[in-house]
Amino acid sequence: MEIYDLSERKRRILAAIIESYIDTAEPVGSKALAEAAGLGVSSATIRNEMAELKELGWLEQPHTSAGSVPSSRGYRAYVDYLMQRYHVSEQESKRTQAFLESRVAELERLIAEAGKLISELSGYPSLTMTPKRSGVAIRHINLVPVDPYQFVLVLVTSEGTVKNNLCRTRQPLPTELLYEITELLNRRLAGVELSQVSVMEIAQLRRSLGEFEFVLQPVLQIIHEAAMAMENPEVILGGEGRLLEQPEFRDIGRMKEFLDFLQDNEARRQVLSPAEGHEGITVTIGQEHPLEQLRDSSVIMGNYRIGDRPVGVIAILGPTRMDYPRVLGQFEYFTNGLNRLLQELFEPPDQ
Amino acid sequence: MEIYDLSERKRRILAAIIESYIDTAEPVGSKALAEAAGLGVSSATIRNEMAELKELGWLEQPHTSAGSVPSSRGYRAYVDYLMQRYHVSEQESKRTQAFLESRVAELERLIAEAGKLISELSGYPSLTMTPKRSGVAIRHINLVPVDPYQFVLVLVTSEGTVKNNLCRTRQPLPTELLYEITELLNRRLAGVELSQVSVMEIAQLRRSLGEFEFVLQPVLQIIHEAAMAMENPEVILGGEGRLLEQPEFRDIGRMKEFLDFLQDNEARRQVLSPAEGHEGITVTIGQEHPLEQLRDSSVIMGNYRIGDRPVGVIAILGPTRMDYPRVLGQFEYFTNGLNRLLQELFEPPDQ
DNA sequence: GATTAGCACTCTTGTGGGCTGAGTGCTAAC
DNA sequence: GTTAGCACTCAGCCCACAAGAGTGCTAATC
Fold it and tell me: Which residue from A55, A289, B144, B159 has the least number of CB within 10 angstroms?
C-alpha cells in the first residue's frame, strides 16, 4: 500500500498527526485533532480514518485507549511526500552565510566548524566525519629548532593540512645541521604520497643521516599518523548535551546508554554508513537504520564533496520524533552552501 | 569547635557516616551504622553521638525521621583530618606512568591528554586550563606554498607550539617570492615576543612587502591569536558524561542546568579560580566555593608548574559526595607525576 | 556516669483502590 | 459517507494506608 493510494483526506490527517506529535511528543487523539486542525470533519470521521491508518501501518498506538503515534513508515511517508518545505529563517540563513564567508580554508577545521554550527542551528547533536582523501602527498617538511635539545617537526600536506610535533633529542642538534636535514628530507620526500613513502626511501634516508638517524623516527611517525588520518577518518560528535532537551531522553539510563554507544569511533562510523556511496541527503528513520541502537532515533546525513568525490559525511542525530521539515530544510540549505564552498575552495575552475 | 575537640569515638562515627554516604548516597541511620561499622557500641549510643554531631554542625538531616548526611563542614574535616590515605592501585599507577612516559612533548597537548586521563581514572569530569605563559616569542614563521593561490602559514613559538593556517590569495604567488617573504618575516620577527610585535615593525614590514602587503594580514592575525591564547587561557571540560552516573544528577533538569553553566569559558575559569596563587592541591567543598552554582559540588584542583611558576590548573569536578580518598589519592599521584615531568621537560638542569 | 533497651513518634516510600478524563470502537441515525 | 452517541478502556492522579527506617526520649543497667 503506497501513500498515494490513500485518500487526500487520510494523507492530511496523517500529516496533521505527525506534526502534532513532533510538536508535543504526546499521542494525538481524534478529538483534539478535529478541533485543532481545520479539517472540517468531526472527530468520529477522523476516528474512522485513524482506525484505517492504523490498520495499514501508518500509525501506531502505544496502548488501546491512547491516541496515535506515527510509525517509522508514517514518518517515512511524511518525509518523502507529505511534509511542507521549510524555508530557513533569515537568522538561520545569516548564520550559515557568515560561516560560509568566514573562509576557514583548512578542510578539517572547516568541517569541524560546520558540525558545530549545524548542531546549534538544528538543536540536535551532530556527527562529522573528517575528510578522507587519497593521493595526499607530502608538500613540505620543516624542522625548526626550539633549543639545542628540541625541535619542532612540521609536516605540510598537499592539502594544506599541517601536522606537527615537538621532538626532543638526547644529544644537542646544531641548528645548521637541522637545516641540512630539513633540506635532505624535502629533497627526498616532498611530493611523495603519504602512503607511498617506501621502505627503500627510508633505508636510503637512514644511511644519509648517519649518526642523526634518530631524527627520522618522529618524521616517519608523523607521516604514518597523517596517512592514517587520511585513510581512517574519525567521526566527531558534538552538541550531545542537546539531547537532554528531548523528552525521549528524559530517562537518564537511556541517555547514558546512547552516549556510551556513541563513544566508540567505529560505532559512530557505522551510524554514518548509510550515507556512503549515496548521493544527496540520506534520512534513516527508526528501525530503518541497520544499527539496533538507533531503533528510536533518526539520522539525517549527507556527503560533503570536493569536485564530484564525496570525501566525508556530516549528519544530525535525533529522536525519530524529529522536526523533519525544519531540520531537513536547514540541513539542505547548509550542506548545499558547504558543498558550493568546497567546490570553490578546492576545485578552482582554472585548475 | 574544632574537630580534635571531639572524642575519638565521635570522630570515628563521623568518618564512618561520611564513608557510608559516599558509598551509597543514602542518609545513614544509627542502626545500620551500628551493624556495619564495627564500633562495638549499640545503635542508641551512636544515636546520642550523632545527635551531638548534628548539634555541632558536622552532620545534617534531610528531614526529621531520616538518617544523617555530612555537612560541608563534615566533609571538610574528613578531607583534612579524618580520612585514610588512599594508595593508587597498580592499574592506576600503570596508566599514569604510561601517560607520563608517552612523552608528548608539546605542552598544550600534554595537558589536554592529562585532563582526559584524570577524568577516566577518577570517573568524574575534569577541567584543564591551557597553559598561560608570558614572554613567549616567535621562533620561526614559514610560508609553504600549496598551490599558486594557496600557502600554509606556520608559526612556531619559542615554546615549541605550532599555530598554522591555510591562506588563499587572489593573485598567484610565485614560490620564489614566498620564500623571500618568509625570509623577510623571519629576519624581522623571529625572536620577538608575541605580545611585543610593534606597530613600527608592522609598518616597516608593510612597506617592504609593497604590493604583497596582503600576505601580512594572516600573519598578524595568527600572531594575535597565538598571543591571545597565551594571555587568555581556555578551560577545557572533559568527561562530562560521567556525571550521568552520579545519583545527584539523576534529575535531568539539574544535569542540564549544570552543563549549561559549564558551557561558558569564563564560568569555567571562575570554577578554577580558588586554585590560582595557591600551592599544592586545593579542594573546595559545596558552599565553600565562591560560585553559587557549585554549592552542591566539590572541586579538586591543582596548579601545574614549570619550574616554580604555576602556568595552569587541572581539576576534577564532582558532587560534594565525592570519593575523596580515592580521587584525592589519584589526583595527588597524578599531578605529582605531571609536575615532575614538566620540570624535566621544560626546565632541563643544564639550562 | 556512660551505655543500652525499649518505645512512642515522625516521616518517607511503596502500594492499592477509586476516580477522572482522554481516547477508542462501534452502532444507529442522518 | 458522515456524524452523534455511548459503552468501554486505560494511564495518570489523588488519597489513604501500611511498612519501614529512623529519631529522640526515658528508664533501666552496667
Answer: A55
Contact A348 B149 (CB under 8 A): yes
Residues near A274 by Cβ (< 8 Å), separated by ≥ 6?
A282, A284, A289, A290, A299, A301
* Same domain membership, residue B340 and residue B243: yes
Domain membership flag for residue A299: yes
pLDDT tens digit string along B51-77? 999 999 999 998 888 889 999 999 999
Q: Are the beta carbons of A250 and B252 separated by less than 8 Å?
A: yes
Q: What does DSSP say about strands B309-319 and B297-306: parallel, antiparallel, or unpaired?
A: antiparallel
| Distant-in-sequence contacts of A215-218, Cβ < 8 A, 24+ apart | A215/A143, A215/A167, A215/A169, A215/A173, A215/A181, A218/A153, A218/A165, A218/A167
Residues 6+ apart with CB under 8 A from A252: B244, B249, B250, B252, B255
Alpha-carbon gap, residue A276 to A52, rounded angstroms: 37
Asked whether residue A351 is domain-assigned, the answer is no
List, for residues A188-247, the tens digit of each pLDDT value.
999 999 988 888 888 888 888 888 888 888 999 999 999 998 888 999 999 999 999 999
CATH number, domain with residue A210: 3.30.390.60
Query: Terminal CA-to-CA distance of chain B, rounded, Å?
Result: 51
Cα(B27)–Cα(B11) distance, rounded to whole angstroms? 18
Structural domain span for residue A67: 3-82
Start-to-end Cα distance in chain A: 51
| Contact residues on chain B for A348, CB-CB shorter than 8 A | 149
Same-domain status, B249 and B239: yes
How many angstroms separate the CA atoms of B214 and B143, rounded?
13
Are both A35 and A77 inside the same structural domain? yes
Structural domains counted in chain B: 3
B26: nt with nearest C1' to CA: D21
How long is the CA A117 to C1' C19 vector, in angstroms?
50
Residue A120 has pLDDT above 60, yes or no: yes
Asked whether residue A161 is assigned to any structural domain, the reply reads: yes
Q: What is the CATH number of the domain that holds A27?
A: 1.10.10.10
Q: Which of A187, A204, A231 is a domain's end point?
A: A231
The verdict on A165 touching B (C-beta cutoff 8 Å) is yes
pLDDT tens for residues A71-115? 999 999 999 999 999 999 999 999 999 999 987 888 999 999 999
Same domain, A278 and A321: yes
Helix (H) or strand (E) holding A151: strand A150-157
Q: Which nucleotides of C are covered by protein (CB under 7 A)?
A: 3-6, 9-12, 21-27
Near strand C (CB < 7 A), which residues? A 27-32, 43-44, 47, 50-51, 54, 61, 64-68; B 9, 40-42, 44-45, 47-48, 63-66
Helix H or strand E encompassing B150: strand B150-157
B171 has a chain A CB within 8 A of its CB: no
pTM: 0.90
Residue ranges of chain B with pLDDT lower than 50? 351
**What pLDDT sits at residue B346?**
77
Check residue B303 and give its pLDDT.
Answer: 96
Q: Which residues of A touch B256 (CB under 8 A)?
A: 241, 244-245
Min Cα separation A159/chain B (Å)? 7
